[in-house]
Design a protein that fits this description.
Oligomer: single chain
Strand order of the largest sheet: 3-2-1-4-5-6-7-8
Shape: globular
Strand content: 15-25%
Number of strands: 14
Helix content: 25-40%
Bound molecules: zinc ion
Radius of gyration: 19 Å
Length: about 300
């Protein structure tokens, strides 16, 4: 099975499922570990943050240390329309560890088109929500939320996140994944389940049937799957911009030498970091970059063009 996004929820899902002994876990994440993650991202430690290890790699190391019998396939990539087919190929179940609706709608389109079940999970503040989607049987994400739900557009930056809400939603979702492994679809919960662990408000809404006329599972109009490549993405809560480059493999040793006259630079096998006041650029081997210190895509793009290439 695949876990898309290995932040708070993804870490908790991966930890639970790996300790439970699932055979293969493909962990897809675009980001690297930072000290501010450690409050809620249970697979990582201060050493991972000091090394800026990609989360998928750090997760693979951690899991191998407690269950070497699991096959972990770490993928340091941002799931986008251009790579979703190859990244999710062969997966029988997809678990949501993402932090945004754009990626969730993309997963939903893929899952509905290929009839792969998936589990939506989200936690913001003290609120946790989850839904199992069995294409062709239950409602899909677009049946329930034709547009991004308002309450959930708050990001982890604006509202913070309670680690116990994360663990709650991950526990429920991981249990559904285990049910799926043991006896397929039959015992999966068919409701949208939500909980606020602080106020104790909770709700369960039936999702047993698709909504007639749903864009995704009714009309099979997969707009997100057909989406254009997204060259710039402002990331969740980090005053940073991501730049996508798919065709620019980077030689870290050479890039390290080239950047040295312009600021502090260091690299390991997985990331290269470059500090050019007030910006911090993290470069991945495929040319993707996360530029911290701005939310202006034009600033990020020009920094990238100047130091990496246009
Ligand atoms: Zn639907």
């Amino acid at each position: 099975m695949a876990i898309v996004g290995c932040g708070a929820t993804g870490s908790a899902l991966a930890g639970l499922l790996a300790r439970a002994g699932v055979g293969t876990l493909r962990i897809i994440d675009r980001d690297y570990v930072e000290p501010s993650n450690l409050q809620r991202q249970s697979l990582f430690d201060e050493k991972d943050a000091a090394e800026s290890l990609p989360k998928a790699i750090a997760a693979a190391h951690k899991i191998a240390a407690f269950n070497s019998g699991i096959v972990i396939e770490p993928k340091v990539e941002d799931l986008v329309p251009a790579n979703i087919e190859s990244l999710l190929e062969g997966m029988s179940l997809i678990l949501d560890g993402t932090d945004n609706f754009e990626t969730r709608y993309l997963i939903n389109d893929y899952a509905v088109e290929h009839s792969v079940p998936w589990v939506y999970s989200a936690a913001v503040g003290s609120y946790a929500v989850t839904l199992n989607i069995v294409p062709g049987e239950t409602a899909c994400l677009a049946c329930i939320f034709p547009d991004s739900p308002r309450g959930m557009v708050e990001t982890c930056e604006t509202s913070g996140i309670l680690n116990s809400a994360v663990n709650l939603v991950a526990s429920v979702a991981a249990t559904e994944a285990l049910k799926f492994l043991v006896d397929g679809f039959s015992n999966l919960r068919r409701t949208l389940l939500s909980f606020d662990v602080w106020t104790n408000e909770h709700a369960e809404v039936s999702a047993a049937n698709p909504r007639p006329g749903c864009r995704a599972c009714g009309e099979r109009d997969f707009v997100h799957l057909a989406g254009e490549g997204r060259p710039h993405i402002t990331m969740c809560g980090r005053n940073s911009v991501q730049i996508h480059e798919r065709q620019r493999p980077i030689d870290f040793a050479e890039m390290d030498r080239r950047l040295q006259p312009h600021g502090a630079v260091r690299h390991n096998d997985f990331v290269l970091k470059f500090w050019h006041d007030p910006y911090e650029m993290t470069l991945f081997p495929d040319g993707r970059a996360i530029i911290k210190g701005t939310t202006d895509t034009a600033v990020a793009r020009s920094l990238y063009a100047r130091y990496v290439g246009s």
